[in-house]
Structure formats: structure tokens, C-alpha cells
Amino acid sequence: MEQTIIPDIIVGRLPVYLNMLQHLSAENVQVASSKELGDLMGISAAQIRKDLSQFGEFGKQGRGYSVVYLISELQNILNLNQVWELAIVGAGSLGRAIANYPGFKHNCFKVSMLFDSDPKIIGSRIGEFVVKNPETMDFEIRNSGIKIAMLTLPASVAQETAEKLVNSGIIAILNYAPISLKLPNGIHVQYLNPVQNLQHMTYYLK
Amino acid sequence: MEQTIIPDIIVGRLPVYLNMLQHLSAENVQVASSKELGDLMGISAAQIRKDLSQFGEFGKQGRGYSVVYLISELQNILNLNQVWELAIVGAGSLGRAIANYPGFKHNCFKVSMLFDSDPKIIGSRIGEFVVKNPETMDFEIRNSGIKIAMLTLPASVAQETAEKLVNSGIIAILNYAPISLKLPNGIHVQYLNPVQNLQHMTYYLK
DNA sequence: CATTGTGAACGGGTTCACAGCA
DNA sequence: TGCTGTGAACCCGTTCACAATG
Question: Does the pTM exceed 0.90?
């Protein structure tokens, strides 16, 4: 059915829709129209309908979308019917905070490993994790089959570490380090950089 | 000169360019062509030239762009010639990690205040900050003239807290809470949500 | 009768291609 | 010669508008 390739910009909005639907579901909302959803998210109703129509017909004319049904369809589309294990590389304060962030486990993600190159903390316990030695990283990741890593280390070592991760079988990286990664085609990278978000906003201030 | 309104999508790329240029500058690179920059960032050379041409003529034909000069122009455009003070609301592990993140001070941002509603930690010291009582938030923020806040608290209280911040004079919010904020026009909001970034990538996995 | 799904129209962002210039 | 700056062409994402429908 879905022979055409879906624009990445549409894929990127699906998690936004899913998040909003989960909030509505938590408030026991049963049905929502594209107009209601759009108003809540600041997106046009037409865009929501068009986006969803790329994947199937999930709504009912005159009624709207069943919240729980649309949630399950979006989870299906986004491959969220399994638990995705995560490796965190970098156990500084940010890496630790993320390791203990409760939001992952409620969304089909599970932090499984935490690496850091600092000999002073290798082997020590952080929350429920024992900090692992990066020298064992290749074996650990390859062996576990983990596909997703989060990079929370200084920019200076982010590129080389990302390359090692890719060589170990990682195919998706969420990069918190403030640097552009140069990686082979087929490797998915997303960037989280608060400084860039702030700089984007300061353009409009003053 | 710049009478036309600049598309937000272009503004959002300027911090990316700036970041790359700062890395090049740190490596003592003097000049870079749009092609070199594009290759480094995975962006087309034409796009970089077109984006920059919205703001002026910063390059030299046959040579490229002076790295330090382009950095200073971009900082100018993005209003980074002043220190922007930040308030963090929510002193959980994420808020604490961000409060001590060294990347801000090297980029014209300075965390000035840290709020949390937990009576057990109000008044306690976290790094160089004393956790402040949210009841004093309106006074503190209005008094200091802080314009930017970072929200690092649970989704359940993010909306009401954001509204309070806006009433206190905040006009830009970097929201780490996993929820869409509904705020008046003119308030700038950027979202950081690792779960959504991960879900975006899992679409392409398996 | 309200709302979906969708072709068509629209608009705007990206790429192209080249004149202009150091 | 090499690279910028930029109008024009192109492409793609968004909005429009309405037939279809529970």
C-alpha cells in the first residue's frame, strides 16, 4: 500500500501527534477531530489530515479520530511495538540525568548501558547502571544488538566515538554534543543542542 | 536594508552555521568557501550562500568567507553581542545538569536563577546556585529583566508555569517538558524532547 | 451535518546556472 | 581562475475546497 516514500518532515510530526494524543487519552478523551488536534498543537487541520492520509484512513467522517485507535496506529507506523534499548555514551551530569529520565520507559525505550572513559567512575554505580569501560563498547553493543545510542560527551571526542558506535552496529544516534557528525549514509542522526535553540530565539529578541 | 522578513527556517540555520564556524576558528581556519562549509554540515553550498545573502554580502569572490568575520556578523544578526541571562525552572536532575552545563557561558548565555517548588531543596545549593522559591519567581524575574527561561519540570505543571513566566516578562522559552505549550502570540517557544527525536528515528529502523 | 480524505491550486523554499568580481 | 551573490526555474510541502460518508 505505502509504496511512495514518505517525506521526512511528515515522519517528524508523527511523534508530535502521538504525544498530544497520549495526553488526551490520559484525560479520557475518546475522539478528536483534526481541527481540535490542530488547535491544541498550533498546526492546521488540513495538515494533520494530509499527514495521516499518507499512512491510511484512520478517521471517521463526521466524527473525527478515535484517540486510542490513532495512538495504536501511530505506534505501529513508528515501530513502537517493541522496546528499543539505548546506550548512553558519556556519564557526565547530562548523561546521568538522561540515564535516569523516566520518560523513556513509558515510551518503548529503555536505557541499557552507560559508558564513560573516566577511570575514576568506570565500574561505579549511577542510579541502576554500572558505568562501563568504552574499551568494551564494541563487544557490548554488538553483542546486545543495540541499535540506538545517545551521545552525551564533549564535542572534541564526539566524532570519533560516533564512528566507533557505527562500527559496532549502531544505526541511530541522538547527539547532544554541540558538533555536526559526519557519518555514512544510512546512519540516522538527530541533534539536540540547547544553545542553538536559544540562539534561534535571540534573533527575535531586542 | 533588510526590509523583508526573513523566513524562520533560515534564522534557525544561522546558529548551525555559527557553531561550525566557531569550530573552524578554533582550528585556526581563516577562510572557508560555501562549498567547504556545506560539505562539513551536509547542506548545499547554494543554500548557505542564499541564506547569508539575506543579511548582507559577507564573502569575497574567488576566496570564500573570512571565518572570524562571518562569526562576528552572525553574532550580530543573532543579537549575541550581549549576555543573555537565563532562568531555569525545575531543579530535578535535568535542570541541575543544565544549570551546570558549561556550554552556555561560552555562547553569551548565563544561567542566573534556578527555581524549584520542592520545599526540601528550596534554599539549598546546587553548583553555584541557590534554589529559589517559585513564589518569588514573579518578583525575581520581573526585577532582573530576564527574558529567557528554560522549563525542566514535569509536563503536568509546564503549562501553568509557562503562563506565570510570561506574566513575569519572559518572552522566550526553551521547553524540555514533553508537552505543547499554548501561549500568546509574540512568545517564542522552542522544544527539546528526546523521546520525539528517538521516535522520529525508529520509523526508519527495522 | 460535521468531518474525513484528497486532487488541485498555491506558495515558498531550494537548486540551478551564470554574471560579476577579486 | 575560483567563488560569491542572485534572478529564474524548479520542486515540494501546505492550504484550499469539496465530494464522499458515517
Answer: yes
